[in-house]
Amino acid sequence: MRPRYFSFPALFILFLTLLACSGRGDDLRIYEQEKVMMGTIMKIKAVAPGNAEDSTRAAFEAAFGEMSELESELSEWQSTSAVSAVNREAGVKSVKVPDAVVTVTEKALEIATMTDGAFDVTFKPVGQLWNVKERTAPPPQDSIATALSLVDYRQIRLDRAKRTLYLTKKGMEIGFGGIAKGYAAWRAGEVLKKHDIRDFIINAGGDLYVEGKKGERFWTSGIKNPDQDNAKPVTTFNVIATCGVATSGDYENFFTWKSERYHHIIDLKTGYPAKGMKSSTVFSSDPAKADAYATAFFIMGYEKALAVVAEDPSVAFILIDSDNKVMRSPNLDQFIQEH
Question: pTM of the entire structure?
Answer without folding.
Answer: 0.91
